[in-house]
Specification:
The structure holds two protein chains of two kinds. In chain A, about 70% of the residues lie in helices and about 0% in strands. In chain A, helix 1 (about 5-30) crosses helix 10, helix 3 (about 60-85) runs antiparallel to helix 4 and helix 6 (about 140-160) runs antiparallel to helix 11. Chain A has one domain: ABC transporter involved in vitamin B12 uptake, BtuC, CATH 1.10.3470. By secondary structure, chain A is an all-alpha fold. Chain A is globular. Chain A has 14 helices and no strands. In chain B, helix 2 (about 40-50) packs across helix 12, helix 4 crosses helix 10 and helix 5 (about 115-140) crosses helix 6. Chain B has helices spanning about 10-35, 40-50, 55-80, 90-105, 115-140, 145-165, 200-215, 220-230, 230-235, 240-270, 280-290, 295-320, 325-345, 355-365; strands at about 1-5, 345-350. In chain B, about 70% of the residues lie in helices and about 5% in strands. Chain B is mainly α. Chain B has two domains: about 1-40 and about 320-350, no CATH class; about 65-320, ABC transporter involved in vitamin B12 uptake, BtuC (Orthogonal Bundle), CATH 1.10.3470. Chain B has 14 helices and two strands. Chain B has a two-stranded antiparallel sheet. Classes of the chains: A mainly alpha, B mainly alpha. Chains A and B meet through helix 3, helix 4, helix 10, helix 12 and helix 13 of A and helix 6, helix 11 and helix 13 of B.
Chain lengths: ~300, ~375
Amino acid sequence: MTDSLPLLFAATLSAGTVLAIASLGLLINERAGVINLGAEGMMLVAAVAGFATAFHTGSDWLGFGAGALAGAAMAAAFGVLVIWLDTNQIATGLAASLFGGGFSAFVGIGYVQEHLRDRAQHAWPVLGDLPVLGPALFRQHPMVYLAMLLALGIWYFLYRSRAGLVLRAVGESPAAAHALGYRVRRIRLAAVIAGGALCGVAGAYLSVVYTPLWAEGMVAGRGWIALALTTFATWRPARVLLGAYLFGGVTMLQFHLQAAGVQVASQWLTMLPYLATIAVLALLSRNPAWIRANMPAALGKPFHPGD
Amino acid sequence: MPRLETRPAPSRAFAVASPLIALALTVACGIALFALLGKDPARGLSMFFVEPFRGAYGISEIAVKATPLMLIGLGLAVCFRANVWNIGAEGQYILGAIAASGVAMQAGPGTGRWIVVALLLAGVAGGMAWAALVAFLRDRMNANEVLVSLMLVYVAEQLLGWLVYGPWKDPQGYNFPQTITFLDPTKIPRLVAGLRVHAGFVVALLAVAACWLFLFRFRAGFALQVGGLAPAAARYAGFSSRAALWTALLVSGGAAGLAGAFEVAGPLGQLTPYVPAGYGFAAIIVAYVGRLHPVGIAFSALLMSLFYIGGELAQSRLGLPKSLTGVFQGLLLFSLLACDTLIHYRVRWRAALPSRAAPAQAGSRP
């Protein structure tokens, strides 16, 4: 047990990183007032794009880049439809998720049995050799630490920079932002694309580092959980990070319980993260006033300059 | 740059034309995709729109696949009209299949045909129960129904997996994850001997009429739609939004559950991990393409059924992945949503340079 706890912790960080990056991305576009239910589809397409790129080039980072591009491209299509053509945000997001599911399976069919060669072991120079802390904290893929920096960066951007203030204004009161001369729809599109790119990085991290392989539907609801996380975290970056690790832990718990010899069918343990999402969602949503106080005021509402 | 201008009234012409334009756009994308993959586009398209109609067997298969799509799509139309976003019909469909299987497995060789009715009712109850969870959490806890209903799909898949790998596994099934083959008395009656089309298709067609009556001739259906369109007006009229929420979710859950029951006791004849075939998600597209109107949904379910069969044919005859179906389904919904913009807006092509544009415009008018 003493040996496996640091490993459980390490696996939790890695599983949480997928959720953290995706959810931080969704946080940006929700702070600008757009809710993108296409997260699951964007992550799937990015996962296959990232895996294929890493497979052919041998570089994780090119894989992440390809994932970011794939996610951004899908988000751009979603954004143009929702922001300029004024389509229903829920239905359009669903369309992106359904399309992403089919398209990724279609494109990825040739990669189903493939493996990535020579996975590099990552370890910090001295810290990685520490007895318990080393395996728990300091032998992760660099992306795990970048995700933490990303949360910090997004916090700084949102609360300490002028651009972040404008972004929040667009999400809280697009009419006021418009009156001040800001191009509300362009800012929203930029936020949606940024969110899609981060969902893409998350999808690519999943297929290149976390599993690492490609399988149809492998995102397995993580996009939806990431969407729920932004609500759980009341749209704050630090809480998103915390929530992502908590949910990473719930995902990992099933493997840990099985290894510990708990006699429960694996299916019941696999249900845990989904049941946990429902439970947390229900508990947190119980007070509508609290949600409303924290939610970007114009979330999900279209904006037309000149109306 | 083109600019959108609000129409004084929604265009009725575009409301009807939009699904057709969307279908044309999807077909155009399909042609491009086939060409890109080095397949003959004409042959590729014929897999979707010509080959499925070859012979009685083909027609029967279209009806078989249209049955669950139509039933679930009708339920979702009621839901979406009430502005309730039940995205988890797939889960309710699985629960319906599980509940119906539970009844079907009780049958002995001497059981009467009444068991078919019993298992169908069990399917409805199973789907309703799964949707009732969503309704309860939304009603009492204010939990977002999109996320809850979706999460319950994953839970339902695991529940199904546990049953067929565990307690319900056929002891004589060579360790395959599946239940026993259901006995003859439980089989849904077939419409034509030798073809798989079953009584469920007739029920689905009757459901079209029932759905139309409910939406356009019953007070409850009217109240539900007012609540979806204008919550404030519904409150003023004294229509209960809670009643609308529960009705919408129970109707759509029950319809999805019924579809699941027909599927396991009809074409499948046993419960397997492959029961969830994505009908619950495809039915969202069916509902939209059918304009959330019962008659439109009957047609769009048949169209979506062609997509499924076309995907299978493209796999077996052209060696393309079956997931082509999903690509086309997603494209169809995307282009439909884009085309729907034209119902409420018209496009104004504003020229970049007004001084030059003006004479050009004058010249174009003879």
